[in-house]
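User: Please fill in residues for this 249-position structure.
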């Protein structure tokens, strides 16, 4: 009985891992100045090959500043801090405090309070999103009915070539193919929100493009594996996946 139980448990684990392989969980990391693939991989406790393969990178030697990398398996965005840079900053801050401790503290304080107040006033209106595609939701956010797979977003059915529009105003930070996602557009919005649109047939916007709410950004395509005509859509807050059905109206 003990051997049979162990075998059954191992079989369940293998099935679970295999089912999650189609669209793994992860986060998007924005590459900052002086960051390398080696240091990014070390920060997220993964290997360079995994990042290279997930993002279809041409080589492991360089990665462009400002580019967006998908880190499979990561739960939250981490800060990559080069040791040499950290020491220099610490020395600079200490020197400033000794020379002008009171003047530096008093002047920036009012500006910070005003900025915070403005952000809070705009939060409620900025968090409202419209449907990027009108259609039936065939796959919801969260765990699947089998309890083994998880969706970071929802899947909306439609016809191939249907109009896909921006769920809210913002700036396009990625427009291109992503492994497991296919042709994808990611838009950055105010108040730390981002929306993800995948399974596209044609992308109509490029990185850096400012878009308005409801603006046409792509045409619907098909899922690579199933061939079904449906849009994969995510809403993320500070890079954490949220249930889009609680935000769409």
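Assistant: Residues filled in for all 249 positions:
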């Amino acid at each position: 009985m003990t051997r049979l139980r162990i075998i059954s448990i191992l079989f369940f684990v293998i099935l679970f891992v295999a089912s999650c392989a189609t669209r793994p969980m992860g986060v998007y990391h924005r590459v900052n100045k002086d960051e390398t693939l080696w240091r990014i991989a070390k920060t997220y406790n993964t290997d360079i090959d995994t990042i290279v393969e997930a993002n279809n990178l041409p080589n492991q030697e360089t990665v462009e500043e400002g580019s967006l990398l998908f880190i499979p398996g990561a739960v939250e965005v981490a800060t990559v801090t080069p040791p040499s840079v950290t020491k220099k900053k610490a020395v600079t801050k200490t020197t400033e405090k000794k020379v002008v401790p009171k003047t530096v503290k008093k002047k920036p304080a009012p500006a910070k309070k005003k900025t915070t107040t403005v952000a809070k006033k705009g939060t409620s209106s900025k968090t409202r999103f419209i449907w990027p595609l009108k259609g039936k939701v065939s796959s919801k956010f969260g765990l699947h009915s089998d309890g083994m797979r998880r969706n970071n977003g929802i899947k909306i059915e439609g016809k191939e070539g249907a109009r896909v529009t921006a769920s809210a105003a913002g700036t396009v930070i990625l427009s291109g193919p992503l492994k497991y996602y296919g042709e994808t557009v990611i838009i950055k919005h105010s108040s730390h929100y981002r929306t993800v649109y995948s399974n596209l047939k044609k992308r109509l916007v490029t990185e850096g493009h400012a878009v308005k709410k409801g603006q046409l950004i792509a045409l619907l395509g098909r899922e690579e594996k199933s061939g079904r005509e449906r849009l994969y859509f995510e809403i993320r807050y500070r890079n954490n996946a949220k249930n889009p059905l609680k935000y769409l109206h």
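For context: The chain has a mean pLDDT of 77.
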